[in-house]
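thread: overnight batch results

M.L. [08:02]
morning all. the overnight job finished for the chain we discussed friday. pasting input first so we're all looking at the same thing
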Amino acid sequence: MALFLSATVAAQNFTLKGKVVDDANAPLPGAAVQVQYPWGEDAGATATDAVGHFEINNIEKGGYVLKVTFLGFEELRK
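M.L. [08:03]
and the structure it wrote out:
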C-alpha cells in the first residue's frame, strides 16, 4: 500500500489530502484514513473515494500519526 499526501494550511488549521493506492498503483476505494493524536485519539477520519482520494479538513497544527487500513493489506502508520 502506498500513500501520496499534500497539505493546505489556512490560519491555524490545515487540510490533509492524499491518495491511497496498492503496489501496482491501483486506487484503494473505501480505505479507512485516520489522523490520530500521539495518545491514539482521532483528530479526523474519512474513507477514500472511488479513485482512492481522501480529504480531512480542519486539522490543528501539531504532531500526529496517520493511519490507513484496508481489508487484505497491512496497516500503514506514518
